[in-house]
Amino acid sequence: MSRFTFLYLLLLSTIATGQIYEPVSWSTSVEKVSTNTYDLITRATIDPGWHLYSQDVPDNGPVPTTFTYSVNESFNLVGTTQESTGTTINDPVFNMDITFFSNNAVFKQRITVDENLPASIIEAEVEFMVCDDKRCLPPTYVDLEYNMGNAVALSSSGQTNVKRQKTSFTQKNNPSKNLKNSVPQKTENENSKGLWTIFIIAFISGFAALLTPCVFPMIPMTVSYFTKQSKSKGQGIKNALIYGCFIVVIYVLLGTAVTAIFGADALNALSTSVWFNLIFFLILVIFAISFLGAFEIVLPYKWVNKVDRQASRSGLVGMFFMALALAVVSFSCTGPIVGTLLVEAASKGGIAPIIGMLGFSLAIALPFALFAAFPGWLNSLPKSGGWLNTVKVVLGFLELALAFKFLSQADLVLQLHLLEREVFLAIWVAIFGALALYLFGKIRLPHDSLVNHISVGRLSLALLTTAFTIYLIPGLWGAPLQLISAFPPPLDYAESPYGVGKSNLGMISTENLPDIPDGAHLLAPHQILTFNDYDKGLAYAKKVQKPVLLDFTGWACVNCRKMEQNVWPQPEILKHLKNDVVLISLYVDDKRPLDEEDIVESQLKSGKKLRYIGQKWSEFQTIRYKTNTQPFYVLMGHDEKNLIEPVGYTPDPDVYDVWLETGIENFTK
Predict the structure, then answer these.
(1) Greater confidence, 589 or 379?
(2) 3-state DSSP call for residue 523?
(3) Is 594 in contact with 574 (CB distance < 8 Å)?
(4) Side-by-side strand order, sheet with 66-69
(5) Better-predicted residue by pLDDT, 488 or 429
């Protein structure tokens, strides 16, 4: 990568991170339930693209939203603070179900008041954490006030005397204002890319469905019907085009129905549940067994006969039912493919099922229109034969492999460790190895014809499958397998997280570890010497004459973990982190209390004291670097001046490596 390209990307990163964000505003109101019973209402308004975490977050997850009420003798709390319904997903970094809110959230705390000791103002404090798809903000504390004198009856609409309060940071040119809300949070460009991916996969799947025994023989039969029944060639082409359009309409209606029934965003939330993954694992296994020839999945004959009778009608109605008849008759071959597409599209949420069915149906309809326009092409079509069943069997193996992806997701959520990385890869090696043997003609299934020789195309596919199987095998011993990283469990969800026979990726043997200085520790799994105290880390850097890499991070920061898991382990970057810099990781959500002598008043919010270590580092980052997002990386010299512009989340290892090298070179000049 050229230095010019790096500087350009660095500029973008600096612009994106050099902000102080305030994505949540809070308002309060009071509702009167009965004579001495009230509800304290707290509303959070959340900027697009950001999400606020629920009050109920599992241990070792993000920081939950927490309300603390200043209780006195004038009122009593009744139960706990209730919250509106949020969105629950399985977070792949924390490996747990996490609930969060987008756009807005409502919290309600019921109280009973003592009529003899009326309270005009009730005070509270809310602690919360917000993230978007690139950054997280440190835990923030906001004071709340509820004016009892302006309570409204429960049946009234609206709210009175709403007091809006902002978090303690001032927002400047927030680029998140133009982000579109989705689950998980993604930018419009990322959503567009995801939908295009679904469309392309669905389009290719449609062509695969064309090559099955249920659909392929229908092409010449149907096209011949239109050309013979039409009075002219133009009329035949027109009818075939209408027929193709009806095919598209039928499948798109199916995708629309799935989206309407389950809800656009609910599909994504559903796809993260254990039961969803287990059910679709079983469905895909049944589809795969059907494709392999054990049985056929067919719709009831009554349905088929009714549709077939309607197809004999003339005009547009007849053509619509002809298209519907194709969908019904070919269901035993297209059903498993359509089902798999809908399952995969459901995991994307939104209109993905509709886009998927559009791509699939276009691939199905296109040949009918083309061959109607150019009927001479029909002579070039290969004859039906055993190769059509081979296509079905290959699809069956692929369905079976995909099924274990859903089972693996359920296992990850439940943390059962039954389908760890090695087991998953062993299953895939067996599946694709068997597929390679089948393509070479060494395995025969029930509906296969005798193979005396294999075609060049089949041989090519057999060799490609064999190569893929061989590629999978090193993964059993710890290879990262970047080509399929989205499918198997992560590297640390394994019997041997560092590879078979290795305890720390072979980077450092435990016998040769250096003496660890005061205040430092070795960051697993790569044994990077790390400080969590700024002063001690800077003093050590001066002693060993190395620059400082400040890492503003958080225990609950998703993108911080992504950097540590995906970017830092790259060989060149890891070499710099272990040999050329002194790493100081400052956790802005560290909830350990400060020593009594270190408790000081906040410079950002008058009257507030810094009570926790994380608050200290968060305020330090905000004051010095004018940003409050994590991850945030600073390379500085012993004079505490920047050696290069700081950067935030940088998922491209090449960009991050050049940034490190440039800063280190500036230190040595």
Answers:
(1) 589
(2) strand
(3) no
(4) 66-69, 121-128, 140-147
(5) 429
Q: Which of 540, 562, 558 is nearest to 549 (CA)?
A: 540
**pLDDT tens, 519-567?**
888 876 677 899 989 999 999 999 999 999 999 988 767 678 778 878 9
Angle between helices 331-346 and 188-210 (to 10 degrees): 170
Helix 264-271 vs helix 274-291: crossing angle, to nearest 10: 90
User: Based on the number of CB atoms within 10 Å of its own CB, is 420 exposed (0-12), middle (13-18) or buried (19 or more)?
Assistant: buried
Residue 379 is predicted with a pLDDT of: 64
Distances (CA, A) of 287 to 333, 335, 489: 9, 8, 23
Closest alpha carbon to 359 in 227, 168, 509, 208: 208
What is residue 495's predicted lDDT score, i.e. its pLDDT? 77
In 542-649 the beta strands, taken as DSSP E runs, fall at 548-553, 582-587, 632-636
3-state secondary structure of 191: helix
Task: Give the whole-angstrom CA distance, residue 249 versus residue 326.
Answer: 13
Say how many C-beta atoms besides its own lie within 10 A of residue 407's C-beta.
Answer: 20
- Cα 185 from Cα 492, distance rounded (Å): 25
From CA 100, how far away is CA 86, in angstroms rounded?
5
Q: What is the C-alpha separation between 89 and 654, in angstroms, rounded? A: 31
Among residues of the chain, what percentage have pLDDT more than 70? 67
Q: Pick 395 or 188 by higher pLDDT.
A: 395
Q: What is the reported pTM?
A: 0.45
CA dihedral 196, 198, 203, 209 (to 10 degrees): 180
pLDDT at 587: 87
CB-neighbour burial class of residue 117 (10 A; exposed 0-12, middle 13-18, buried 19+) = exposed
Q: Please say whether the dihedral angle defined by the alpha carbons of residues 264, 254, 188 and 570, taken in this order, is positive or negative.
A: positive
DSSP string computed for 9-65: HHHHHHHHHS-----EEEEEEEEE-SSSEEEEEEEEEE-TT-EEE-S---TTSSPPP
What is the spatial distance between Cα 419 and Cα 281, in angstroms, rounded to a whole number? Answer: 13
Nearest CA-CA partner of 27 in 7, 42, 12: 42
Q: How far is CA 554 from each of CA 184, 318, 493, 533, 634, rounded to the nearest angstrom?
A: 20, 63, 22, 14, 15
> What's the CA gap between 276 and 270, in Å, rounded?
6
Give me the pLDDT at residue 412, please.
Answer: 67
- pLDDT computed for residue 243 by the predictor: 77
566: left (phi over 0), alpha (psi -120 to 50) or beta: alpha
- Is the pLDDT assigned to residue 49 strictly greater than 50? yes
Tokens of 344: 């995969």
Regarding beta strands 75-83 and 104-113, do their DSSP bridges make them parallel or antiparallel, or are they unpaired? antiparallel
| Residue 304, pLDDT above cutoff 60 | no
List, in order, residues 6 or more apart from 27 with CB less than 8 Å away: 42, 43, 45, 159, 162, 163, 164, 165
